[in-house]
Design goal:
348 residues; alpha/beta; Rossmann fold; 2 domains; seven-stranded mixed sheet; six-stranded parallel sheet; globular; EC 1.1.1.2; ER
Length: 348
């Protein structure tokens, strides 16, 4: 099988609507797998990048780093996969493989030549194109196995939303006896609730209103509070071992830090385009940690997929046609999705 160009949806320039086009794919190399993409999730970061929200992008840009599909071809040296295997691709498709972080399995923090799934330059100097397309070629070492316990459509968002929450929950030891709060019940937050609950933590959702309270409880939340109510911050002062903020808008971090126990942590996985301000006394007064976390390495992402399959956890999704992508972007911005759009790539 030889595929040199594939159908895709791309943003031709910053802030332009996405449109159907074709993009090149490299030949399948010795250690590559060709993936027939079945589903691609829409992450808020796709919108930030397609619209130049995080800095100058590479256009045309094919977003998509929540990819699920089937292996269609393997290179001669591939040992990890065979044709027909259920596989996924997350936020990066290569790294330097030599720095201290790559050697620790923390490829997401590669200090050398990390290569994002899209809006990046590969080691060949060519732009990378993401999952809003019919096929992708990826090195076997950056390809994930999707277990049978979760459908490909519900698995696609796990490759970003799932690992983005699993990694900090695991790193900060969420589990029995720990009180964990998830800020925002969206594409990221709803997976945080599911995973934290499955880990055995006592889970609270902190949302702007109580509109999604019923959903939160169904997903595994023990408690649900509205952050628009000042009484929430009075009642929950000093409550949580761990708070994970998933929102992509600036928060009053001093107020949220007041909810953290001494020696607890507030971890940010949302990435607002604007800078934040912080009163450092909100940290000093309880030996608290304000931290960040970004996706996970390959081994940890595989562990997350296995964990989700074991516990029957997939994303809550709305499957759309490719010609609905631009409409979906506007709905994501307006928080009008429960809880992740997934593109049926057969419609590209």
């Amino acid at each position: 099988m030889s595929i040199t160009t594939v159908a895709a949806y791309a943003a031709p320039s910053a802030k332009a609507p996405l449109e159907r086009t074709t993009v090149p794919r490299r030949p399948v190399g010795e250690h590559d797998v060709l993936i027939d993409i079945k589903y691609a999730g829409i992450c808020h970061s796709d919108i930030h990048q397609a619209r130049d929200g995080w800095g100058e992008g590479i256009y045309p840009m094919v977003p998509g780093h929540e990819i699920a599909g089937l292996v269609a071809e393997v290179g001669d040296g591939v040992t990890k996969f065979k044709v027909g295997d259920r596989v996924g691709v997350g936020c990066f498709v290569d790294s330097c493989r030599e720095c201290e972080y790559c050697k620790q399995g923390l490829e997401q923090y590669c200090s050398g030549a990390g290569v994002s799934t899209y809006n990046s330059l590969g080691k060949d100097g060519e732009p990378t194109y993401g999952g809003y397309s019919t096929h992708i070629v990826v090195d076997e070492n950056y390809t994930l196995r999707i277990p049978e316990g979760v459908g490909l459509d519900e698995a696609a968002p796990l490759l970003c939303a799932g690992i983005t929450l699993y990694s900090p929950l695991a790193h900060w030891n969420a589990g029995p006896g720990k009180k964990v709060a998830i800020v925002g019940l969206g594409g990221l937050g709803h997976m945080g609730v599911k995973i934290a609950h499955a880990l055995g933590a006592e889970v609270t959702v902190l949302s702007q209103s109580l509109r999604k309270q019923e959903d939160g409880k169904k997903l595994g939340a023990d408690h649900f509070y509205a952050t628009s109510d000042p009484k929430t911050f009075e009642d929950l002062a000093g409550t949580f071992d761990l708070i994970i903020s998933t929102v992509s808008a600036p928060l009053d971090f001093s107020a949220y830090l007041s909810l953290v126990k001494t020696d607890g942590a507030l971890v940010n996985v949302g990435a607002p385009e604007e800078p934040i301000s912080l009163n450092l006394f909100s940290l000093i007064g309880g030996r608290k940690t304000l931290a960040g976390s970004m996706i996970g390495g390959i081994a940890e992402t595989q562990a997350m997929l296995d964990f989700c399959a074991l516990h029957g956890l997939g994303a809550e999704i709305e499957v759309i046609r490719a010609d609905q992508i631009n409409e979906a972007y506007e709905r994501v911005i307006n928080s009008d999705v429960r809880y992740r759009f997934v593109i049926d790539t057969a419609t590209i």
